[in-house]
Every structure is written in C-alpha cells, then in structure tokens.
C-alpha cells in the first residue's frame, strides 16, 4: 500500500468505532440513497460499494441485487461491517479491506458502483473516478453521493465548518468540499454521462448538517 493510502487506512481505523455509532443513529440518508438508486438496480447486478465504511449503505442495497461487494481501505471499518452483517442474514454480501486501486478488482466487472461520502476524502479524486470508470461495465452505472459546498456560502464559512467537524474527530484526514459544478465536471471528464442529480439532506443532528449531499447517477456509455 502506498504511503498516502496507508495513512488514510490508519486514520479511518482510528475513527471506525465512533463512525459506526453515528451511522447506526443516522441511517436516513442511506435509505434516501436507496430510494433514489432503485431504478438503476436489477436483481442480477454485481455491485460494489466503494468506501463502504461500516456497511450502512451496503445493507440497504444488498437485498435488491445479486452480489454486493463492500470495499474499504480500513480493516477496522470492514471488521465492524462484517460483525453488523451477522444481524442481516444476507448471503450475497461480502466485505474486503482493500483500496479501490487494488489490482484484484477486474476491469468492467461491476454493473453498478456506489460510493457514499467518499469522494470528498480522496486526495486523488480524479484518479479514483477514472478507476471507477475502468471497473464499471459499458452501459453500467455509477451512483455517487458526495457532500458538497452549498451555493451562496463563502468558501471560508464552509472551510470553518469543515475544520470544526475535523477537530470534533481530533485529527484531520484529507477533506475537501467542492462545488457541485466541479464535482460533476470531474465525473463527466472521467467518461461518464450524467443522467440524474439531486440534493439530499443530512440528518439535522449530524455533524454534516451544514452541507448537503449531491446524488449523481451517471452511466458509462456502451
Ligand atoms: C466518510 S467514510 C464513508 C463511509 C460510508 N460509505 C458511509 O456512507 O457511511 C469514507 C470511507 O472511505 C474509505 N476510503 C478512503 N480511501 C479509500 C480507498 N482508496 N479505497 C477504499 N476505501 C477508501 C475510508 O476508509 C472510509 O471508511
């Protein structure tokens, strides 16, 4: 694992237990993502939840597809996801601790790739988007939900809120809230065609309530 990725894995390992508690308390966003995603899913689909964390979205998606592969760079996140999976009795669900860049993932092997709240913590977001494009089959879907900078708010205001969130977790991993235009330009430049977008709200009790999550459904043109 290269240096930046190893640091990221250590950061998320330390955060995993607290993160899991927040996710268990705040599953509404994942349910909204599921409702938005249903029209893109088929019961024969092989899907990937990239940066699955402790599995909150994976558990919602798995009942609607053939295979749900949850992937996360943090072994501790994956350990908690596997423990939580025991309560769901889903036989089509598996979790691995690895980076999206691992060469064990085969090009064009997924019908749908999800990612929820991951692109804004990727230092190399554009590289990750190119990798996702490589992994989705032609005609397949990328369903992304990413916290974005609200329109009309100054960069400083949002940066201050981000820093206060970061200090709440007592360490700073990489985090950048981009504008919707910047995010969507990158998704298009990776080769996807954007089909649908929506602004989703975080739970009002959440640390993230000051930003919103941009849902993007994008297709790899056959
Ligand atoms: C903010 S959490 C989001 C977790 C989950 N998707 C959710 O919505 O609750 C970001 C996750 O991305 C994972 N991550 C960061 N870099 C990654 C990479 N290169 N490959 C796979 N996962 C990565 C982290 O370990 C962390 O669990």
Q: Any descriptors?
A:
about 220 residues; alpha/beta; Rossmann fold; 7-stranded mixed sheet; 7 helices; about 40% helix; binds S-adenosylmethionine
Report on the architecture of this protein.
With 222 residues, this protein is an alpha/beta fold. It has a single domain (3-220), classed as Vaccinia Virus protein VP39 (Rossmann fold, 3-Layer(aba) Sandwich), CATH 3.40.50. Helix content is 38%, strand content 25%. The chain is built from seven helices and seven strands. It has a seven-stranded mixed β-sheet with strand order 3-2-1-4-5-7-6, sandwiched between helices. α1 packs parallel to α4 (75-85). The chain is globular and about 45 Å long. The mean pLDDT is 89. It binds S-adenosylmethionine (SAM). S-adenosylmethionine binds at residues 5, 8, 12, 23, 50-53, 56-57, 71-74, 77, 99-100, 116-118, 121-122.
